[in-house]
Amino acid sequence: MTATLPGPVGATSGAGAVPTSPALDSPRSPYVRNKPTRSNYEMYAWLFMRLSGVLLVVLVLGHLLVNLVMGDGINQIDFAFVAGKWASPFWQVWDLAMLWLAMLHGTNGVRTIINDYAERTATRLWLKLGLYTAFTVTVVLGTLVIFTFDPCPVGASADLLPEFCGTTSAATPLG
Amino acid sequence: MSTTTAVLDDAARTSTDSKGKAGEIAGFDVTIRVRRYDPEKDTEPHWEDYTVSAYSTDRLLDALHKIKWEIDGSLTFRRSCAHGVCGSDAMRINGRNRLACKALLRDLEPSKPITVEAIKGLPVEKDLVVDMEPFFQSYREIMPFLITSGHEPTKERIQSQHDRERFDDTTKCILCAACTSSCPVFWTDGQYFGPAAIVNAHRFIFDSRDEGSDIRLEVLNDREGVWRCRTTFNCSEACPRGIEVTKAIAEVKQALLTRKL
After folding, report:
1. pLDDT of residue A165
2. Is residue B20's pLDDT more than 80?
3. CB distance A116–B185 less than 8 Å?
4. Is the pTM here over 0.95, yes or no?
5. B145 with B34, same domain?
6. Which residues of A touch B190 (CB under 8 A)?
């Protein structure tokens, strides 16, 4: 029986020697699994996406309703309208919540997309670095604007200021 | 791309009556376009066409058999039981993961070439054979066996029908890897546990006799665990056993949330 056993093509074997497999590298690429992580980070990220999504629907639709539908609709929007809104702490908090939630929601979404589509660790790292930089710049700048916004800064020349500032600054010297 | 033809007569199939046409099964020619790869010859996989005559009762596996046995013996694929139970012959047929032994040729638009390739996301060893190790490694990690504490009972572990019903769907898995290799998240780097491992964890997590669900849930709470699921439903569509895979994954997510919060 063993004598009739066909050896691999090209394999030369001595008398009585068992057929040897061809000298080729194993086609099996070594599979290395990532180390297990012991944290709830991904769970909280997943949960945050659901909760912030629900909140954003309310915040964004409310924002659109107040800005575009109620009152004079789109015709009311100008510098004075925004200045008027941000004079109220309610709209400051509303816009701040919208900014933070939208940025966190969007950034986390893009983070998962990078994880899903970027195959190499280095590519992931650089893409995420860019993403987190963009997030930080936008959130810091946005937060700063919402809290430090002043429609009529003291000492600015009158022709740069909107009309409603002019009336108050004009009234001051008279008074 | 080369084309080879074989005409096969399979008298036993065509008719019980050799003279008349009663009971005759319609025959047709079908082109099978196979993605071939021989690691000893090829640097890249390539498509090759084979034309075989088949009958409307034939499955894709029968066509592959005809190619292997009568046209090109070097064609390599896995199959064991050939009846949809062993889960050996999962392949990508016309772009969808199916079992070759459960896919009838007449359902695969035989007027056009039927494309057959290895399942995606796992390293191809030869033709339609892939290295299943990454798949089985994540399967082992979820500990697919009964975990209990205390003394072993002298009798069988009794379970109510209602408790058995709870995880019935996920007991049907045959580990063919059709779901895991249809998952876009798994395609990226093969690190995601994959639907099959989660389905088999679900089978024990929701088993009233098992006491290891906390360990399994902790394993699946990993960065590469259930939270990487994007609910694309590819797995549910691919499953040849009709398991509601995406639903099972969602139930594991829910179990994790209720335990952690």
Report:
1. 76
2. no
3. yes
4. no
5. no
6. 31
Give the domain range for residue B17.
3-130
Residue B70: strand, helix, or coil: helix
Distance CA A7, CA A18 (A): 8
Q: B176, B169, B164, B193: which is closest to B242 by C-alpha?
A: B169
Q: Is B153 on the interface with A (CB under 8 A)?
A: no
- B185–A119 C-beta distance less than 8 A: no
Residues B87, B140, single domain; the answer is no
- Domain check: are B110 and B187 in the same one? no
- Residue A33: its chain B contacts at CB < 8 A? 134, 137-138, 141, 191
Residues B26 and B47 in one domain: yes
Q: How far is B125 from chain A (nearest CA, A)?
A: 6
User: Domains of chain A by range and CATH?
Assistant: 41-150 (1.20.1300.10)
Distance from CA of A131 to the nearest CA of B (A): 19
Please choose, from the candidates B115, B132, B110, the residue with its C-alpha nearest in 3D space to the C-alpha of residue B29: B110
Q: Which pLDDT score, from 0 to 100, does residue B5 have?
A: 59
What ipTM was assigned to the predicted interfaces of this complex?
0.81
Residues B35, B83 within the same domain:
yes
| CA distances to A55, A133, A138 from A146, in Å | 20, 20, 12
Q: pLDDT digits over B44-55, tens only? A: 999 999 999 999
- Neighbouring residues of A70: CB distance < 8 A, sequence distance ≥ 6: none
Residue B131 and residue A24: Cβ atoms within 8 Å? no
The answer to whether residue A96 neighbours chain B at the CB level (below 8 Å) is: no
CATH at B63? 3.10.20.30
Distance from CA of B191 to the nearest CA of A (A): 6
Domain harbouring B159, CATH code: 1.10.1060.10
Contacts of A119 in chain B (CB under 8 A): 188-189
Contact yes or no for B86/B101 (Cβ under 8 A) = no
End position of a domain, from candidates B130, B147, B179:
B130
What are B175-207's pLDDT values in tens digits? Answer: 999 999 999 999 988 899 999 999 999 999 999
* Mean local confidence (pLDDT), A151-161: 78
